From TrEMBL:
The gene is ackA. The lineage of its organism: Bacteria, Bacillati, Actinomycetota, Actinomycetes, Mycobacteriales. Mg(2+) binds at N7, E384. ATP binds at K14, H209, L210, G211, N212, G213, D282, F283, R284, G330, V331, G332, E333, N334. This is Acetate kinase. Keywords: ATP-binding, Cytoplasm, Kinase, Magnesium, Metal-binding, Nucleotide-binding, Transferase.
């Protein structure tokens, strides 16, 4: 059984062709800089197939052109998608609103609703829709399945999902906390429970997904009860380029002082977070700058860790009993310093990291807490593509 997974962003498409049961990936790649000016010879598609890497250079005018080229690369690599017998195409869709909370077979009606939800996710849903439309055209007869980033948080308790604003206004404009990165939080929490040899229903967990975007979640007995991202992916933790939590008064202040909505949007989504504080949004570079005494890099790091610890503390109290804390995402999986600083000095709360285990580089799920740490601390690689492929396969599998 083969599933093609597509994650379409505003100027990129990430894809993977994989076997959902075994997780074997037969090809993967990235189309980047869609719709941008690109000089001749500049790489815009990196395709990793059976025959190694193929690089496509030159401009990609739009998503449809990009996907067509990708299909050509698959064929050139001996894996023609039209004849591969795809069981499904699985699409990452960022916002499912109140409507979608489980993997959903895409019909024209479903697609129209995803498009309507664009007002809640203007940076993401329109690109997801374009990716789906292209795939529907290029793969007639192959079931298309949408897997929503918000789904895992659909059942957040009312107290966790409600903002304390006028209830009528909130209802009118869809203002509530939805949460994002749900596919990753669900997958990683399942892996963490399995690592401990327990059922998800029997464990309480905190999952910290730290990548370019970053979010945390509190999970009680397999169900998400809180998460750091809110109505949009801007709330919560400090991220590579996003501010995370702010006093909402700051936005009013900026607007009163002449910044318009588009400028504030760019400021908070693309020019804030680690980048806004230090000019750097990649953690490897940030660590190097901190070591060379860069004070702005140090402050950015300290603000990042401060916010992370704030939420870890909140979730420890909210859950009451926590069995496992898990780090995932590019930063969570790779930065031992972030993991150590996030949980340092919490022995009295039952958390004791083993510095040696924490420094071991290991690409599979592993434990980094001391054997007598009451709360286990794990590193678990996330794999959203596999989770999407499995969700799509489960939906279309007969019986
Ligand atoms: P995305 O949110 O885009 O999926 P990832 O989860 O891939 O991002 O995380 C990307 C980030 O992971 C990079 O910006 C970088 O800061 C961080 N990262 C990757 N490798 C390392 C490393 N070896 N050490 C520290 N940070 C790393």
């Amino acid at each position: 059984m083969l599933v093609l997974v597509l994650n379409s962003g505003s100027s990129s498409i990430k894809y993977q062709l994989l076997e959902p049961d075994s997780g074997t990936v037969s090809a993967s790649g990235l189309v980047s800089r869609i719709g941008e000016d690109v000089g001749p010879g500049e790489p815009t598609i990196e395709h990793h197939g059976r025959g190694g890497e193929i690089v496509h250079t030159g401009p990609i005018p739009d998503h449809a052109a990009g996907l067509k080229l990708v299909f050509g690369l698959f064929a050139a690599d001996g894996q023609d998608l039209a004849t591969a017998g795809l069981a499904a195409a699985g699409h990452r869709v960022v916002h499912g609103g109140e409507v979608f909370y489980r993997p959903t077979l895409i019909t024209d009606e479903v697609l129209a609703t995803i498009r309507d939800l664009s007002s809640l996710a203007p940076l993401h849903n329109p690109a997801n829709v374009i990716g789906i439309e292209c795939a529907m055209r290029l793969l007639p007869g192959v079931p298309q399945v949408a897997v929503f980033d918000t789904a895992f948080f659909h059942g957040l308790p009312a107290a966790a999902k409600t903002y304390a604003v006028d209830a009528g206004i909130a209802a009118k404009f869809g203002i509530r906390r939805y949460g994002f990165h749900g596919t990753s939080h669900e997958y990683v929490s399942g892996q963490a429970a399995a690592f401990l040899g327990r059922r998800p229903e029997d464990v309480n967990q905190i999952v910290l997904h730290l990548g370019n975007g970053a979010s945390g979640s509190a999970i009680r007995a397999g169900r998400a009860v809180d998460t750091t991202m809110g109505m949009t992916p801007l709330e919560g933790l400090v991220m590579g380029t996003r501010s995370g939590d702010l006093d909402p008064g700051i936005i009013l202040h900026l607007e009163r002082n002449g910044l318009d909505v588009a400028e504030i949007d760019v400021l908070l989504n693309r020019e804030s977070g680690l980048k806004g504080l230090s000019g750097i949004n990649d953690f490897r570079e940030l660590h190097a700058h901190m070591e060379s005494g860069d004070a702005a890099a140090r402050l950015a790091y300290d603000v990042y860790i401060h916010r992370l610890r704030h939420y870890i503390g909140a979730y420890l109290i909210e859950l009451g009993r926590v069995d496992v804390i898990t780090f995932t995402g590019g930063v969570g999986e790779n930065s031992s310093q972030v993991r150590f600083d996030a949980l340092a000095g919490l022995e009295r709360f039952g958390i004791a990291i083993d510095p040696q285990l924490n420094d071991v580089r290991n690409r599979s799920a592993h434990r980094i807490s001391k054997s007598d740490s009451e709360i286990a601390v794990l590193v678990v690689p996330t794999n959203e593509e596999l989770a999407i492929a499995r969700a799509a396969a489960d939906l279309v599998r007969p019986g």
